[in-house]
Amino acid sequence: xxxxGFGPRWLAARLGALLPQFPEVAFCVAFSGGADSTALLAxxxxxxxxxxxxxxxxxxxxxxxxxxxxxxxxRKVARRLAVPLKIVRVDVKRERGASLEAQxxxxxxxxxxxxxxxxxxxxxxxxxxxxxETVWLQLLRGAGIAGLAAxxxxxxxxxxxxxxxxLTRTRTELAAWAEGHGVDFVEDATxxxxxxDRNYLRRQILPLVRARWRGCAVAVSRSARHAAEAQHxxxxxxxxxxDRAADGEALAVxxxxxxxxxRRKNALRYWIGVRGWPQPxxxxxxxxxxxxxxxxxxxxxxxxxxxxxxxxxxxxxSLRERVAAAAPAAPVTWLWGATPVQRLPGAMGEVTVQAxxxxxxxxxxxxxxxxxxxxxxxxxxxxSGGGRARTLKALLQxxxxxxxxxxxxxxxxxxxxxxxxxxxxxxxxxxxxxxxKRRVRIIWRPI
Length: 447
Known about the structure:
Blueprint: H1 8-18, E1 27-30, H2 35-46, E2 54-60, H3 67-81, E3 85-89, H4 100-115, E4 121-123, H5 128-140, H6 145-148, E5 154-157, E6 160-163, H7 171-180, H8 197-212, H9 216-245, E7 246-247, E8 250-252, H10 253-257, H11 261-274, H12 282-294, E9 302-305, E10 308-313, E11 316-321, E12 332-335, E13 341-343, E14 350-355, E15 361-362, E16 369-373, E17 380-381, E18 390-391, H13 392-398, H14 403-406, E19 411-414, E20 417-421, E21 425-426, E22 439-445
Parallel strand pairs: 1-2, 1-4, 2-3, 4-6
Antiparallel strand pairs: 5-6, 7-8, 8-11, 9-10, 10-11, 12-16, 13-14, 14-22, 15-22, 16-19, 17-18, 19-20, 20-21
Helix pairs in contact: 1-2, 2-7, 5-8, 5-9, 9-11, 11-12
């Protein structure tokens, strides 16, 4: 199809090749108002096979003074093409040290994901020149095979599928088609801002490359397809290795350690990606595949990146979302004689003193005033009369109490002395003995 010029017939044939169910599909076009997405939307609207289930979404980033004018232009073009259009405003958070370009892209795709309906096809107007730029940028960032595969023609996205039907067309021919058919488009002034990596590459570097290697865009796009094929094979191997190491939602550390280092990294990349988490950088992946898996079973190491925490408990490696540490709850004074049931702050639940003829605690030895607080580290307890004091950390490890549960365990103190840990242990100083007349136990009900 390289020899046939861009237009409605070419686009219909391309969509038919990519989507066997075409034209019985619903399309949503990511419409910026630029030449590329304008050509895509106009060609779709002109093709009777795609029109009945066609709509567009424009994302208003609010980053440029003319952003509202661009939105108004998109309304005008969509009205002329008789295509329903929705404009979505996003708030791009400017984090220090992060690329504004990347943050805007993330906000845009998040908005499109929210807007995409179940089973709908999201169409973007990425073309062969975009692919060339993307591969170069990935190379300069030291990306692996997945990065060099750049943008696939189609991929699962939100509730539907993302399809890029224009990856064999050029920026020039799309703009020429739009101009030739009298369809207005806007020029984003930020495309001239060479402080942005992609613009600098596009305006300063790639013209020199094209002057020497005229077919570079097609050749690099072909390399990206080869990388994508290689990535498919790596994904198949990663899926197989991760399935063999699966322990529920976690992975078994012993199974991972049995793999060669390269396959171990590949399995971890697959396992992280298939769960929808961002990938770790090279250094953190090396920590995951090496020191974290090699650590002692009771060390509970963890590796964090972006919003993700990978942590190990004994032989299990699991993932969770990283949340900001909450300020520790203030200690609670508990006069258990007057208040048998004490509500505790946060996720600590409530504690109760309950009479029990077989209870482990001697009621007459239990101080009338207790202080209840969360762990701070360094606490010690002597759980049996003849034994020595043990660190709470060692007791929790031996009992295999999950890391996620430890922060919410209420600790009961008499002054500075730890006398009970939830309903797990009590100190020898209050433990019942053969002559104890009244026995109780601590009941803990977590939230």
